[in-house]
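Appendix B, example 12.
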Amino acid sequence: ILSPASVSSHNVMDEVNFALESGKLVIPVIIAKCIVPFRLRLFQHIDLTENFSEAFENLVSSLNIVKSATTKPGAISVTLINGMETAAGWTLTVDDMDIKTVYGTKYQITNVATGLHKIEVKGVINKETLYASELVNQPPGEITYVTLTLRP
């Protein structure tokens, strides 16, 4: 998973190097705009920052994952630590689709399909627009808990 934080982390790059040296399948997945490390530039990557739905389908195809229509949907419970600081609430987006403007710190999304989902939140605190996001792998029939904090 590539983001500004992950590409600047020595631990993450050590894990990438270990995976490459062990002959593991490596598919760089970009979740936030960043500079792709030199060692990963030769690999075809999946960019979830542009067209999430299309990129996600490419990722599923790359991993040879078969989606099952018979799996029980789950739920994602989102907690926004600084949600109360947003005067006009915060916007919750799942897979590039606006779900709801939320007032408070918690919201639960129901009937979530099994698989990978991009959770994004946006809010204004002290006249500054702030963001947070996370990729969630939703197991069938379970509640996944996500805790985020709005940041510049």
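The first strand starts at residue 29 and ends at 30. The chain has three helices and nine strands.
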